[in-house]
Amino acid sequence: MTDSALAAHAVPAPDPDQGKAVSERDRAHVFHSWSAQDQVAPLPIAGASGSRFWDYEGNNYLDFASQLVFTNIGHQHPKVVAAIQEQAARLCTISPSFANDKRSEAAELITSHAPEGLNRVFFTNAGADAIENAVRMARVHTGRPKVLTAYRSYHGNTATAITMTGDPRRWANEIAGHHDSAVGHFFGPYLYRSHFYATTEAEETERALDHLEQTIVFEGSGTIAAIVLETVVGTNGILVPPPGYLAGVRALCDKYGIVYIADEVMAGFGRTGAWFAIDHWDVTPDLITFAKGVNSGYVPLGGVIISDAIHDTFRNRVFPGGLTYSGHPLACAAAVATITVMREERIVENAAWLGENVFAPTLREFAERHPSVGEARGIGAFWALDLVKNRDSREMLVPYGASGAAAAPMNAVLAECKKHGTWPFTHFNRLQLTPPLNMSEADARKGLAAIDKALSVADQYVEA
Ligand code: PLP
Fold first, then answer.
1. Each residue of 208-220: pLDDT tens digit?
2. Measured at the alpha carbon of residue 374, what is the angle toward residues 372 and 378, in degrees to the nearest 5?
3. What percent of the chain has pLDDT over 70?
4. Which of 302-306, 341-345, 401-405, 443-447 has the lowest average pLDDT?
5. Cα 302 to averaged position of ligand 1 atoms, centre (Å)
6. Per-residue confidence (pLDDT) for residue 182, from 0 to 100
7. Which of 157, 318, 433, 462 is the right S-S partner for 383, CB 3.0 to 4.6 Å?
8. β-sheet bridge partners, residue 186
């Protein structure tokens, strides 16, 4: 069944009264993430199927965000829904201290797609606790306290993960004292807005690596347990690393005895057109964190994939961490079904195909035609349009960290996308396009046509 057929099959009649009731209860009792509670009006959603979701008013949207970049196989994949139902009927839950068939199978499948030498999985509930536990492993393994991460990153909302985060969500937490004092930051590569005055990818790679090495030396290499990097930076801009950068990070980690943790919570499980984003650069990290796409978020799940060397540290030494729901059978059954479906339906290959044949050429053409597009960049089903007021100065369409009135131009662009039935993700001055990896070509082109119209709104804010 195609996405469109699924959507047509499943969409029920509009029911605005029910939608109103959902909203009223939400406003009365639900506390929302990252929000001033009186300033949000969450759209009540009645259902979803394939690449679409719909409200109670009869509007349906192409999901160009995959929610929060997690429904990599789209909504309500029948085989994954059936696997969850089957597992629920058989064994909903069991303590992590027992062995469980679906947990073992999920771990085997996950490691089968990881680089060689990473053969164990510690399961967590989602991404932030995957990061917390990867850092915990690195600290015990090295006996060192510090962690270095990049500005322009997001790693989660728990204490260490939010301190590691290189975007403004960290600031309010630090002010509130929610903080890990052994975390430091550095600048990663971002040629379009180079921190290193670079004009070529080769210069950006060389200078970003030199800056990282200087940071290591001045922080004291013997104090640093881990460097943690999103392989392709997600929320903070879909920043694809230039050739040689990740290999250079690996070499620095080897030189100074530092654990290299690849955060693939967003970039992993096919998002970039490879099972793990790191596969594009042929680099082997020591630990990989994952969540989201592992089971498309049908049941919360995350984890850490562990190298043999770090696993050896804990063969006869207690790992000082654990979670009540580590390797939850329902979540693991969903992962087994999701990975199986991704293989059978060649979903990762579809993401790569969409990237090369639909997103790359169309977005580059938009960049030529729309003066508000400073840069179009991405890989697979992972794309961003860096919107600007002025192409020469590259001044951002809205400032870094903009919210409220300062974000009005981006809100207008987003509203135009939604008016045309397409739901992308925006972050500061960027429109980010991260559809389900199995979106059809026709739906991808339909969504891009809506983006084209929304860019005409962005063009109105361009200053001569
Ligand atoms: N790491 C990255 C790269 C992410 O994008 C996210 C969430 O968006 C996280 C970690 C945190 O994951 P979670 O929200 O599941 O805790």
1. 999 999 999 999 9
2. 120
3. 98
4. 401-405
5. 9
6. 97
7. 433
8. 150
**Ligand 1 centre distance from Cα of residue 154 (Å):** 7
Which residue's C-alpha comes closest to atom 5 of ligand 1? 266
- 3-state SS record for the chain: CCHHHHHHHHCCCCCHHHHHHHHHHHHHHCCCCCCCHHHCCCCCEEEEEECEEEECCCCEEEECCHHHHCCCCCECCHHHHHHHHHHHHHCCCCCCCCCCHHHHHHHHHHHHCCCCCEEEEEEECCHHHHHHHHHHHHHHHHCCCEEEEECCCCCCCCHHHHHHCCCCHHHHHHHCCCCCCCEEEECCCCHHHCCCCCCCHHHHHHHHHHHHHHHHHHHCHHHEEEEEEECCECCCCCECCCCCHHHHHHHHHHHHCCEEEEECCCCCCCCCCCCCHHHHHCCCCCEEEECHHHCCCCCCCEEEEEEHHHHHHCCCCCCCCCCCCCCCHHHHHHHHHHHHHHHHCCHHHHHHHHHHHHHHHHHHHHHHHCCCEEEEEEECCEEEEEEEEECCCCEECCCCCCCHHHHHHHHHHHHHHHHCCEECEEECCEEEECCCCCCCHHHHHHHHHHHHHHHHHHHCCCCC
Q: Is the CB of 128 within 6 Å of ligand 1? A: yes
pLDDT at position 11, please? Answer: 75
Residue 372 has phi, psi (to 5 degrees) of -80, -10
Gap from CA of 164 to ligand 1 centroid (Å): 12
Query: What is the atom index within ligand 1 of the atom nearest the CA of 230?
Result: 3
- Domains of the chain and CATH, by start: 3-76+346-459 (3.90.1150.10), 79-344 (3.40.640.10)
Say whether pLDDT at 418 is over 60. Answer: yes
* Position 268 pLDDT exceeds 70: yes
DSSP run (H or E) holding 390: strand 382-390
Q: Mean pLDDT, to the nearest integer, of 101-120?
A: 98
Predicted confidence (pLDDT) per residue in 115-171, tens digit: 999 999 999 999 999 999 999 999 999 999 999 999 999 999 999 999 999 999 999
Average pLDDT over residues 287-309: 98
The Cα 407–Cα 397 span in angstroms is 9
| Residue owning the nearest CA to atom 7 of ligand 1 | 156
Give, using CA atoms, the residue closest to atom 15 of ligand 1: 127
- Whether the model pTM is above 0.70: yes
What ligand 1 atom has the least distance to the C-alpha of 127? 12
User: Rounded to 5, what percent of the chain is helix, strand, coil?
Assistant: 45, 20, 40
1 confidence band (pLDDT: 50, 70, 90):
very low
